[in-house]
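Same chain as my last thread, 342 residues:
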Amino acid sequence: MQERAADRRRMNLLWLQSGGCGGCTLSLMCAESPDLVTALDIAGVDLLWHPSLSEASGTEFHAILESVRTRREPLDILCLEGSVIRGPAGTGRFHMLSGSDRSMKDAVAELAAVASHVVAIGTCAAFGGVTAAGDNPTDACGLAYDGRRAGGLLGEGFRSRSGLPVINVSGCPVHPGWVVETFLQLAFGTLKAADLDAFGRPRFYTDHLVHHGCTRNEFYEFKASAQKLCQLGCMMENLGCMGTQVHADCNIRLWNGDGSCTRGGYPCISCTEPGFEELDHPFLLTPKRAGIPIGLPTDMPKAWFVALASLSKAATPERLRQNAVADHVKVPPSRGQLRHKK
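reply #2:
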């Protein structure tokens, strides 16, 4: 039986921000049922410091870091939001720890060495993300990954004091539920190495595909495709939607109670995956070869997809054919006769 929160020592959480936009914090503050503060209290987690939520600054902030660094104050969960800035030439001096002569890179590495758990919040902290795009002049990377390559700041073999690797809660931004649930599992001791996928992401959300629960799935099944963003059809064939390939539960665990990218009329751009910022084609374009999308659903042989797609298109109901290229439902489902047992 799991011990109750009241029977455990309360855990300390320290949250730092590096090379990013702060969007994951903004998303996290939208946590609901329960809200963030209530969730942390339920879990028995105390927030030592957060750049947006804490009053302490200046010397008070540095005193908190020093107490953690010297282990006078236990550090149970270290969170980093934003990528690690290693430039120029590996010095990290493109991003200095405010009020000190030390780089944020070195400060994070030192704190990670004394933390029981290290959590990368968002795709930037996990893999480098948008900050590492293009020529990457700041030499940005993730805590334990540089794009899809293991390594990053802490190295492939890094393990926190709990024995776990860096926990990569990726997303751009993250869903608040992913972060809160990760904290709850850490607080109750239920998150084990087997609960992380090959990229160190919690499997409770990456064992799903964005495709699961998508409201456009009927259009997908019949390959009734949208031609423009404002239309209702499936966006995989023409508009670059990668939901059938991307690991996340965005259409099951809705945002703000009712939303997701695809529900908002925008294709999935694979923001939970390493390297999503470096696509070799425009986000809103589906690359094809001989008219067949290059990126096919995971675990599905191309020949099978082609055969099923041909049959599906031939069997597409006129209702779906018309609605797929409309911005509203033009043809509602017919009132078919229901069969009842006599």
